[in-house]
Amino acid sequence: MKKILNFINGAYCEPFSQDWLDNYNPSKGEVYSKIAYSSSEDVEKAYQAAKDAFPSWSNTTIEERSMILLKIASLIEENLDALAEAETLDNGKPLSLAKAVDIPRASSNFRFFGHAITQFASEAHESVGLNTMNFTIRQPIGVVGCISPWNLPLYLFTWKIAPALAAGNTVVAKPSEVTPMTAYLLGEICNQAGLPKGVLNIVHGTGPSAGQAIVSHPDIKAISFTGGTKTGEHIARTAAPMFKKLSLELGGKNPNLIFADCNYEKMLSVTVRSSFANQGQICLCGSRIFVEKSIYEKFKTDFVAKVKELKVGNPFEADTNIGALVSKPHLEKVKSYIDLAKEEGGKILFGGNQVTVEGSENGYYLEPTIIEILDYQCRVNQEEIFGPVVTIMPFETEEEVLKMANSVKYGLSATLWTSNLDRTMRVSKQLEAGIVWVNTWLNRDLRTPFGGIKSSGVGREGGFEALKFFTEAKNVCIKYD
Ligand code: TXE
């Protein structure tokens, strides 16, 4: 059976433990490969390689670094089909989505930061009249850690690695043990692109073992993490006493505010996507839908009709809209929330059942599910489900919907549908979220700051924010006569 090996110092290698985890194909519910179960010894080996590579990589010219990142971007593009198939097999997402979104975005991440580093500049402050000149230099931190989740595997893995490398750091990275395959394949691509050995090291294994070893390593000075809020808390607790730099992108329970004056048809089709894209397993999905009362009944009818058209099926088939959930434990977790919704008085307007797909009877398939709720404070409307499940309820006034939208502990993104400019400004300013999309969803310009407030995280990724995170600012102050 195929083995997913660590990639350390430019070479694939087995874990010290010689232990292996099962890697499942969620569309079939079968083990199809084995993952290196790495421990602190493997992380130490990866750290040493990264440490040795740092002096040279941090002194490599910006032009050379940029060229290598652009080469990686091109190679990802050239291997688009193979990478997309690997992603679908590992994650269960529709192949069409992996081809249109995941892999192209992984390539864009390298391309974007390959270009961005050539434009990254720092400030100078002249103390006029005092014969003093200050300038800021932004130096790479050293060896940094990047830990990523399973929902957008290569997309989020590269979103961290690309800026870390562009800024001149060397990296010890760990993808999710649930979806390690494309990160494994990236090692070979980096070698082909001429990335010097030791600059990027990829260690596989569980969070408590390999992940924890990265976070608690005393000389890995910064951690960029995307994953669950509970894990984020744990990481913060481990890293804070060592004063590590931390960027945490955590969960979300994002509101979708629909006003009667919106462009209805556009809103309807985008809302289907924002609810169920990637089986609802995107931290930015709009899982709480609030609809102005005057259009509520019409919306309910039209939304259910559109969602009924979505095909749940084998992710490799071209007409599949909703593939498999990522794992059996995750499927069970999502199903438990559907049961809870019923206990809480929610009405299932559509879906709610596991689906058996012919030829893939053991796969983890679930119908897209719409739950009408009575109380915005019920658990199903407050806790992150992270699956193809949305709640809906009506509202009457702006004040009311803002209160409901801001009632959760999360604050990642929000979507607002209206054609009233005054309302756009008023509501956007009051929404407690790091990103507000107005009349659109998941519309990303990679230069913009990305991240959440409240329990959705700390720090911002994207654009120069990411390059600032992966560097330390130093003020040089010169007094002259
Ligand atoms: O994520 P974990 P899980 C949410 C979603 C989901 C829940 C749990 O609600 O149901 O989180 O998902 C590594 N030290 N999101 O359990 O555990 C782990 O190996 C260091 C939202 O899969 O947070 C993996 O690489 N690392 C989210 C990564 O952390 C540790 C995307 C994420 O895993 C670690 C995914 C530790 N102690 C889930 N423990 C989003 N915001 O997009 C785990 N890891």
What would you say about this model in short?
By secondary structure, the protein is an alpha/beta fold. It has helices spanning 40-58, 62-78, 80-91, 95-119, 153-166, 181-192, 207-216, 229-239, 264-276, 293-308, 328-343, 398-405, 421-430, 463-469; strands at residues 2-4, 6-8, 11-13, 20-25, 30-36, 124-127, 132-140, 143-147, 170-174, 200-202, 222-226, 245-249, 255-258, 288-292, 347-350, 354-357, 360-366, 369-372, 389-395, 410-411, 413-417, 435-438, 453-454, 457-458, 471-479.
Overview of the molecule:
The protein has 481 residues and is an alpha/beta fold. The protein is built from 14 helices and 25 strands. Strands 15-18-19-14-13-21-22 form a 7-stranded mixed beta sheet, sandwiched between helices. It is globular. The termini are far apart. The model has no long low-confidence stretch (mean pLDDT 98). Ligand TXE binds next to α7 and α8. Ligand TXE is lined by residues 147-151, 174, 176-178, 206-208, 211-212, 215, 226-228, 231, 234-235, 249-251, 283, 384, 386.
